[in-house]
Amino acid sequence: MVEEKQIISGIDIGTTKIAVVIAEWNKSDNSINILGVGEAPSDGLKKGIVVNMNKTVNSLTQALSMAERQADVEVNGAFVGITGDHIRGINYSGVITVSKGSNRQPVGQEITQNDVQRVLDHAQSINLSPDRRILHVLSRDFKVDDRSGIKNPLGLAGHRLEAKVHLVTSAINVEKDLQTCMEKSGVDVVEFVLEPLASAHSVLDENERKLGVILVDIGGGTTDVIMYHEGGVLHAGTVPLGGSNITYDIAYGVQTTLEQAEQLKCQYGSAKSALADPEENINITGTNGRDSKTISRKYLAGIIEPRMDEIFRLVKNELRKSDYPGDYTFGIVLTGGGSKLEHVIDLAQEIFQQHIKVGQPQLSGGVSEKVNNPRYSTAVGLINYG
User: What is the pLDDT of residues 224-253, one digit of tens each?
Assistant: First the structure.
């Protein structure tokens, strides 16, 4: 008898937090039940890249043991999210001839699984520098002779098969460092998964992916972008700014600790100073013998808005790199911890001039409801991906 249930783990190694989610996948009804969630502050990373091995391993071990205790399961292997400046996306295509034998018959040959595999292999024959590798081959669509926009060419007849793909490449050394951290924590990496791709698996539905949508995942150190159209990925990219940049801005702006700045951001922050209340005051405790002081919510929003504005404008530049000029039916979906900022939708609407919503995982029952939060989009997506 086939094993009906399988344990899948996802680890989101972020700049501000490391999140571990352990789930049970039931093959018979394709349902996912979250068994355990662990989270620990992340110290050893900067913009998705390991800068301190020991600190990262400590945070990882902490988050792991928390999730393992709750799930009563030991994690041996996991899907691990990867992001950062080193991720590049490129649209590429491969072409093969399908005809078997030398004489060209007027009737094309039936396309087999082997042909599809051949054309996808061909689409990966790109010259990469030796320090990079292909992380994902995301197929967009196929073209058989002169019929384009085909999602699945199996069984169709033709002479020439072309595959359009979006290749995501990453730096091998960055992966190696993450892998070393995982090994030191006693966990094998089943596969590295691009974080926005994982997030898309937990917050977007099939219609959104088909009819066109842009997912913007605002993390601590990076903001990840992925664009879908007709069920395929058009473009994926990363902006090297995120929520922790806002925290630093607040710490500088009101002269306080990073811990208190983070708290101010989460509790009172707003992405739009015009909508923040100028009458409402916030008390800021003095640090290290300095006097306490009071600022208005509007003043705080005045520090946050320019940085949030910058992040969105960089995202807009990233979107321009894609070769799709049309409209996205479902506009933009924001997720990640940064999407929880008040009035973030208002600011995004102003900049992108499209429909904006905040997306989060939609799981039901028990522990699962705990992860229905934009902060866990990547970790839950890793499970769905797995």
Answer: 888 888 778 888 888 889 988 999 999 998
**By the 8 A CB rule, do 165 and 139 touch?**
yes
The whole-angstrom separation of Cα 379 and Cα 12 is 5
Tokens 């902006």 sit on residue: 239
Mean local confidence (pLDDT), 160-187: 88
In tens, the pLDDT along 78-90 reads 888 888 888 888 8
Tokens representing 195 are 């974080």
Judge contact between 94 and 163, C-beta under 8 A.
yes
Q: First-to-last CA distance in the chain?
A: 22
Q: Over the Cα atoms of the chain, what is R_g?
A: 23
Q: Strand 31-41 and strand 45-46: pairing?
A: unpaired
CA distance 203 to 269: 24
Could you give phi then psi for residue 28, rounded to 5 degrees?
-65, -40
CA angle 363, 364, 370 (to 5 degrees): 75
Please tell me the pTM assigned to this model.
0.86
Distance, CA of 242 to CA of 81 (rounded, Å): 16
b/e 293-317 (16+ beta carbons within 10 angstroms → b)? eebbbbbbbbbbbebbbebbebbee
Q: Which two tokens stand for residue 180?
A: 């070393």
Q: What is the pLDDT of residues 91-148, one digit of tens each?
A: 888 888 886 655 556 677 888 888 888 888 888 888 888 898 888 888 778 888 888 8
**Which carries the bigger pLDDT value, residue 299 or residue 15?**
299
For residues 8 and 23, the answer to whether their CB atoms sit within 8 Å is: yes
CA dihedral sign of residues 339, 341, 345, 351: negative
